[in-house]
DNA sequence: AATTTTTGTGGAAACGTTACCACTAAGCAC
DNA sequence: GTGCTTAGTGGTAACGTTTCCACAAAAATT
């Protein structure tokens, strides 16, 4: 049926082992290498990666498990990971969990069955607790979410700092009654909440944090309910880019003007955050760097399996826009 | 090292073939199946997918080659494809070409080496011409872009109709000097251009179409140059969601109000198109359906390889918003 | 010149599965 | 009871590679 290395060997007039060496590395005379390459062209031979992986015990595959590729943060990180992987001659298997622990478990065993070289994972809090390093046969790098203790290599944003930056920014613009909307399923949400509460407390303010399920709709509903209250906050700190669409939509629906009736500050510097009037103040995450750094950590771990685990904490960049314009003195 | 089927067989006290049958399908006594499952649990056995694929000659893998997963259209389609695939017990290999024919060729041979069961592909015009069905060892479904003649199964938007709908909409709102901005590398851009020109001609209007490379920056630059002209159009028809961000940004930079100074209508109903004032009029593509339908076509092709090829043409939905508000009578 | 090392090659044994074949024992029809 | 099917099982040959080993010839070292 399909042409294999044996056919190439026959056409080239050499042994299969020579063909294998000629295609990979290994001592082969220039002359023979020519012949083999000619035979490959003549026969249209394409190596069978399953066979290669089985025999060599190297899959050259890395797994990437994220909540939802439609979340622009993960899209960008995913793209960076893929680029780095393909540049290193590796493939990527991408899985979406929708923050569902059951699916996380499912995909985790899939990764085992694929015998991936390594895994990049953004787990929910629920599975984070269940993860034991020794249960996996490959190194794992956590992104966006941190585990307890230095159990795994990790790369994430300095979430506490980022939240504090936003709080500082809002306070400096005159806002004091600031609410916070955070994702319920990730440690990211918790960290951002903590940073927010700490920064508020440091300024003698009391914050109110609310947690919502990880979807734009949930955020919209929560924001709508909150903003309908007579004692609604003056400003809302919003934990991610998905939520931001929901919050802005809720404000629009209720006829509230940004920032006049409600100021908004959030995370993820998506292109549209600049375009929606009056521009949304956001923390820009170094998404490319996160993806690349995760791959770098993975490769280093593969090279030196017993090195101490590393946690790369990256700082966000605050992009101030009209959604947090200074509150007029009353 | 890692536990294999032989180990399980030994622990369960049966032969390897029995273990294989017990895990897959095949006649196995209930009693033995129990024992095998117990042995699997005891040993922590995880089947090796490379071996399974090599032996069974079924990879259960489908390839997905798109321009850029960061383009929200492809993100959504990709997500739908993945869901359908994983539901069918299949894996997905995702590749980004950035509309680069060289990378398309690279990934096409990768798909061959992976021995994928099938491929879903959004090719550039350049490779579309080069594609010969007989050169591939697996069925391929084209999405978003159509090849010449019914050579491949295809699922895409009715681009001509969609463009015409937008033109009609703009004309009915009083616009006559309407320009069009289209993607240069895809048939999609060409089809939308054709539909636009035809609809303009049908109304006795002359259109002007410009092609740009597939990036938001390119669209922004092109739009800025265009809108700086004294005889700039009253309205712009914009070929995709990526371009839309660029066009809106260009308008903002030049201080042009939408729709007062420049009306905008485009493609892809992203969440933010509703949020950017005064709301962008867009054609909403049935992205989920496109992904699902592509998978469906693929599975049907696998079942009946010799059936005539099918082309599924889906209609877009026009979502009218403020960016095309009626032109005041002068 | 004798030796050791290097280079290039072929044969064959893996890698971990599944699928084919052969076989036994049991069930069923006559 | 004889034949015939069927369920359940084990042995073993693939699947298409890479890698180990052996070996010859050439090159380098002594």
Short description:
Chains A, B: Keywords: DNA-binding, Transcription, Transcription regulation. Two copies of one chain form a homodimer. With 330 residues, chain A is an alpha/beta fold.
List descriptors.
homodimer, 330 residues, alpha/beta, Rossmann fold, 6-stranded parallel β-sheet, 6-stranded mixed β-sheet, 13 helices, 17% strand, DNA-binding
Characterization of this structure:
Chains A, B: This is LacI family transcriptional regulator. Chains A, B: InterPro entries: HTH_LacI (IPR000843), LacI/GalR-like_sensor (IPR046335), Lambda_DNA-bd_dom_sf (IPR010982), Peripla_BP_I (IPR028082). Chains A, B: It comes from Nitrospirillum amazonense. Chains A, B: Keywords: DNA-binding, Transcription, Transcription regulation. Chains A, B: GO terms for molecular function: DNA-binding transcription factor activity; transcription cis-regulatory region binding. The structure is a homodimer. With about 325 residues, chain A is of the alpha/beta class. Chain A has three domains: about 5-45, no CATH class; about 55-155 and about 290-305, Response regulator (Rossmann fold, 3-Layer(aba) Sandwich); about 160-285 and about 320-325, 3-Layer(aba) Sandwich (Rossmann fold). Helix content of chain A is about 45%, strand content about 15%. Chain A is built from 13 helices and twelve strands. In chain A, the strands form two sheets. A six-stranded parallel sheet of chain A has the order 2-1-3-4-5-11, sandwiched between helices. A six-stranded mixed sheet of chain A has the order 7-6-8-9-10-12, sandwiched between helices. In chain A, strand 6 (about 180-185), helix 9 (about 185-200) and strand 7 form a beta-alpha-beta unit. In chain A, helix 1 (about 5-10) crosses helix 3, helix 2 (about 15-25) crosses helix 3 and helix 5 (about 70-85) crosses helix 13 (about 285-305). Chain A is elongated and about 90 Å long. The N and C termini of chain A lie far apart (about 80 Å). In chain A, about 50% of the residues are buried. The model of chain A has no long low-confidence stretch (mean pLDDT about 95). The first copy, chain A, binds a DNA duplex (30 and 30 nucleotides) through helix 2 and helix 4.
